[in-house]
Write a structure and sequence with these properties.
The protein is an alpha+beta fold. The protein contains 5 helices and 8 strands; from the N terminus they run ββααβββαβαββα.
Length: 194
């Protein structure tokens, strides 16, 4: 299976649905209360339709496979995530552009979504590496990536200019196929806790 191919992924906690304009209303509601910190790129409710359109354009260009994250206990769409920077010939992908509603943070939602995405990448798409990138100052994201079991590859210093002109140092992590079984067991153990 190709990394770019739209597919619905589900487990007992979440369903990842190919992102469409029909998700805009729910996802706009899901942005309520989110910290729009200078080092993150969470859209405002008004910007959600444009963000969906941009992700759709990236999908058509072959560089992104976007999903809406639906929480099954409430039935609500609570965020977005993607396969991005897809390099199909080298079977390399990044999981990124992820945001989750405030009331779904610190629940099983993120772990369940990552379990689906990593399983799809390694087991269905035969990926040789799955990468995660985040802003140096996004300590919450860095901690979550490290809890997954991803290994630190390094820091790309002055990697990008932010919308306000500030320089971004990007922290790069990855998981390799031989590491996936241990990462998978860790995620499953986390999800089995009450």
């Amino acid at each position: 299976m190709l990394l770019i191919e739209p597919v619905t992924l589900a487990n007992d906690v979440v369903r990842l649905e190919p992102l469409t304009p029909q998700h805009a209303g729910e996802l706009g509601d899901a942005t309520a209360g989110l910290e729009h910190a200078w080092y993150t790129s969470v859209p405002t409710a008004e910007d959600v339709p444009g963000e969906i359109a941009a992700r759709h354009e990236a999908h058509l260009a072959g560089t992104m496979n976007p999903w809406a994250i639906r929480r099954l206990d409430t039935g609500e769409a609570v965020g977005m995530t993607t396969f991005c920077n897809i390099d199909q010939p080298n079977r390399h992908v990044e999981i990124g552009y992820t945001w989750i509603a405030v009331d779904a943070q610190r629940t099983a939602v993120n772990s369940a979504a990552k379990l689906l995405l990593l399983g799809h990448a390694f087991e269905d798409c035969d990926a040789i590496a799955v990468e995660f990138r985040t802003h140096w100052h996004n300590r919450q994201s860095r901690a979550a990536i490290e809890r997954l079991g991803a290994k630190l590859d390094g820091v790309l210093r002055n990697h990008r200019l932010g919308p306000d002109g500030t320089l971004r140092d990007t922290v790069v992590y990855s998981i390799l196929p031989h590491e996936w079984p241990a990462v998978k067991r860790g995620l499953q153990a986390r999800l089995s806790r009450p």
